[in-house]
């Protein structure tokens, strides 16, 4: 993901320049930095404090996010952190406390779908009242192959996007989660895949999510919102239809980098513009990152307990009220 962000910043975002790169894999850091004439630093903490750099993008492994985001806050720098903000709700709360201490909303979280043209159009349709008041949100999240060997990752790594987009589309909060487990696919290497989440939102709207991360055929994300007078759904994201002998169809994305390339580009452009203007970005905030992790945590508990689990949220920091 870090390589992809550097590529987009370099090729498709205006007003931003990649100044330095760190990667635990030095060879990768060097090859990425060479493409954009950036320095390679061998200590991420030194990079974060470097006075020549205005802001920091974190795309490291999930468990390292907290320390890097806290360092960026200590240096008073805007930071865009890939999702999740941190894997544990308590770690997200520590980030929120540090941001409150810094006195400004400096943290953006990479829930990139908020910038996807399809989801933005869906939100616009809902806002225009064309489908009436929302009742149900049906989501499908399929990957070609799993990126983790843990069943919980279906919730914390994948379904968490659906929870975030439901909050953003509906301006609502998750209240409780139940996880249903069908027979596991024999292609899934022993993990519980697929699974079905049912999330009750505070307004009474229900969100259902099929997560299937060994679907084999590609990366397929779908969404349909059902309202009192109509429905609105995402269209196939590819711009073209291919026809051949006895065949007509659309290409399916390989993974999220293809499917959401435009969303990532817009997210980065928005962030660069916000940093230059000294404003907060339109991306998910540290608070949004915390709620997503807290909801995913309830989902993981629901998976192991087999019961409906409540999503208990802490009080919002003053900065967000
Ligand atoms: C992956 O980690 C991501 O963050 C993708 O956006 C998500 O769609 C995918 O399912 C995850 O494995």
Our count of helices gives 10
Strand order within the widest sheet?
Answer: 11-10-6-9-8-7-15
Report the bound ligands by name, code or SMILES.
(2R,3S,4s,5R,6S)-2,3,4,5,6-pentahydroxycyclohexanone
Instruction: Report the radius of gyration as a whole number of Å.
Output: 20 Å
Query: Helix coverage percent of residues?
Result: 25-40%
Kindly, what is the distance between the CA atoms of the first and last residues, rounded to a whole number of angstroms?
Answer: 32 Å
Shape: globular
Question: In this structure, how is the largest beta sheet organized?
Answer: 7 strands, mixed
Number of strands: 15
Helix and strand content put the structural class at: alpha/beta
Helix/strand order, N-terminal first:
HEHEHEHEHEHEHEEEEEEEHHEHE
Low-confidence stretches: none
Mean pLDDT across the residues is 97
Strand content range: 15-25%
């Amino acid at each position: 993901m870090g390589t992809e962000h550097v590529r987009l910043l370099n090729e498709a975002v205006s007003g931003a320049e990649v100044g330095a790169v760190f990667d635990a894999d030095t060879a990768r850091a060097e090859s990425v930095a060479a493409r954009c004439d950036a320095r390679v630093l061998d200590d991420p903490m030194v990079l974060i404090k470097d006075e020549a750099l205005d802001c920091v993008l974190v795309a490291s492994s999930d468990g390292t996010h907290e320390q890097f985001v806290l360092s960026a806050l200590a240096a008073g720098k805007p930071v865009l952190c890939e999702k999740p903000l941190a894997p544990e709700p308590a770690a997200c709360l520590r980030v929120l406390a540090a941001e409150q201490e810094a006195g400004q909303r400096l943290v953006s979280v990479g829930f990139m779908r908020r910038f996807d043209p399809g989801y933005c159009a869906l939100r616009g349709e809902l806002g225009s009242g064309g489908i009436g008041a929302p009742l149900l949100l049906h989501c499908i999240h399929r990957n070609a192959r799993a990126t983790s060997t843990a069943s919980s990752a279906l919730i914390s790594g994948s379904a968490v996007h659906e929870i975030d987009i439901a909050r953003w589309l509906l301006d609502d909060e998750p209240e409780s989660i139940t996880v249903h487990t069908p027979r596991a696919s024999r292609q899934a290497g022993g993990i519980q895949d697929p699974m079905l989440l049912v999330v009750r939102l505070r307004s009474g709207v229900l969100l259902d999510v099929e997560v299937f991360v060994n679907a084999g055929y590609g990366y397929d994300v779908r969404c349909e919102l059902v309202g009192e007078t109509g429905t609105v759904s995402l269209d196939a994201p590819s711009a073209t239809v291919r026809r051949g002998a006895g065949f007509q169809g659309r290409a399916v994305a390989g993974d999220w980098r293809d499917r959401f390339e435009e969303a990532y580009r817009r997210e980065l452009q928005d962030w660069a513009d916000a940093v230059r203007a000294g404003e907060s970005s339109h991306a998910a905030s540290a608070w949004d990152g915390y709620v997503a992790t807290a909801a995913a945590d309830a989902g993981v508990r629901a998976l192991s307990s087999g019961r409906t689990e409540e999503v208990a949220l802490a009080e919002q920091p003053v900065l967000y009220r």
